[in-house]
Structure formats: C-alpha cells, structure tokens
Amino acid sequence: MNQQGDNAPILDVKALHIRYGAFEAVKDVSFDVYGGEIFGLLGPNGAGKTSTLSAIEGLLKPVSGQITVAGFNTREKPLHARANMGVQLQATSFQPELTIGEIIRLFASIYGVELGEDTIREKLAAINLEDAAGKKIAQLSGGQQQRVSLLISTIHHPQLVLLDEPTTGLDPQSRRQLWERIEYFRNNGHAVLLTTHSMEEAEAVCDRIAIIDHGRIIAIDTPAALIEKHLHDPEVLKVVRKGKVTLEDVFIGLTGTAVRS
Ligand SMILES: Nc1ncnc2c1ncn2[C@@H]1O[C@H](COP(=O)(O)OP(=O)(O)OP(=O)(O)O)[C@@H](O)[C@H]1O
C-alpha cells in the first residue's frame, strides 16, 4: 500500500496549524517519522500533542498544513491513510460483554483480517496472555489491558502506530513489557509515534523526540543529542537536580518551570 520509495518517511507532517475557534493550539508543526523509528512527542499539559495526533488520525481538520501516512495525504486519501495506521484505543472503548478473543476477532474482521483460534492464542501468548482469550477486558490488569489494546490496534500490521500516553498509570513491570512490544514494532520496520510525560520513557525507548510547547516545536533530535546540546545552557543548569544533566532537566530548561493549566 505504500506509495513511496524506501527512504521516504512513513509519517510526514508539514506546517500543521490547528485552531479551536480563535485559539491556535498547534502552530507550524513539522516533523517526520521513519520506519524502524520510535518518535516521541513531548510537551507540558496543553502543548498540542493530542491535537496533533487527532489531526494525523483524521479526527480533526487542521486550518492548514499537510499530513501524509505511507505516502497517502490524510485529507485527499483518508481511507488509505487510515488503513496504514494503528491507533491505540482506551480499554474502556472495548465491548465489556465480549471476551478478549471475540473482541480481537471483531476488530480483525473490521480490518478484513482473518484470524483462527490458534492465531489468536499465538498472538496472546506473544504478549504473555496465553490464557486470556476467554476472559473479559475488565478481568485484566491495566498493563494487560494496554497490551491487548496494542495488539488490537496493530492487528492489520499498520506501517504507522500511534500511541497517546501508552504507559500512564502502569507499574514498572507492565511498563517494561509494553516498551518491549513497542520496540518489537520498531524492530520490524514500523514507525511508532508516541506521546509521553515521562522523560525516563522518552530516554529509554525513543530514537528521536520533539519537544512541543504552546503549540510549537522548540527542539527535535535524539535524546542523547538534546542533552549534549544543552549541557552548558544556563536555563538548563538552573534546574539540574542531581549534578548530571538529564532529559528532564533539558525539558524543564526549555519549557520553563511554570505549571500549565
Ligand atoms: N476541543 C477543544 N476546544 C477548545 N480548545 C481545545 C480543544 N481541545 C484542546 N484544546 C486546547 O488546545 C490546547 C492543546 O490541547 P492538547 O489536548 O492538544 O494538548 P496536549 O499537549 O495533548 O495536553 P495534555 O498533555 O494535557 O494531554 C490546550 O490549550 C487545550 O485546552
């Protein structure tokens, strides 16, 4: 389904502007995400991360700008673009009366993917949930629900995987398991775009990150390069807590200490 050459990004966002009434929430945002890459969108509350994801998903119409997914313009070819992306849903979006096996089969059929009992069991085993096919979603822990949700959102092998704060509220073990699943997609050539408030997560799994503040991208690079670049930045040095500059110090140095509403 990809219309592009091998070296083209899977997600290409160019000069995106999003407005809610008179308020401009996203201002001239441009970035791209390649296959085999985990890209993190970081920013304080209200920075414009979810709005950007919503525009990529086609849920809201930007004022201007261009988004292509696997070479398909999301405005001109929304169905093709959508077929090439997997969006992680909240566990609460799943039908509570169905079993996990039934939910997986339901979503697979929506995407035109045929899945037998054995394949479903194999897929569940790959996320350490071999016995979950007959259970209801409410019977799973938060971490298990997130893994099922990721499995469902990628059932059609989308080139682009979109994850909005995928590990919020998970314990360290569940978070690690989800990171491993996210890395599995990256290692298999998918492009992953995630938002997170965890600088630890960004450093641990993201190959590149963009820091967005008040709707604008103010930095974009690998976590290591961002730290390196700001080692002697006076704004960053002012907020260093443990002597050694961390990604969180760089983030606070660049976005300020004021709490956002
Ligand atoms: N439907 C809406 N109507 C009006 N303003 C909105 C709407 N959705 C978001 N906003 C505003 O747009 C700005 C960006 O919001 P957005 O949800 O994209 O931020 P975010 O970076 O995802 O924040 P958070 O980290 O809190 O989830 C905020 O100021 C928010 O109040």
TrEMBL record:
Q: Which GO terms describe its molecular function?
A: ATP binding; ATP hydrolysis activity
Which UniProt keywords are given for this protein, alphabetically ordered? ATP-binding, Nodulation, Nucleotide-binding, Transport
Instruction: Give the transmembrane region(s).
Output: none
Name of protein: ABC-2 type transport system ATP-binding protein
Species lineage: Bacteria, Pseudomonadati, Bacteroidota, Chitinophagia, Chitinophagales
Q: Boundaries of each ABC transporter domain copy?
A: 11-239
Q: Which Pfam families match?
A: ABC_tran
Q: Which InterPro entries match?
A: AAA+_ATPase, ABC_transporter-like_ATP-bd, ABC_transporter-like_CS, ABC_transporter_ATP-binding, P-loop_NTPase
Q: Which PANTHER family match?
A: ABC TRANSPORTER ATP-BINDING PROTEIN, ABC TRANSPORTER ATP-BINDING PROTEIN NATA
Family per UniProt?
Belongs to the ABC transporter superfamily.
| Source organism per UniProt | Chitinophaga arvensicola
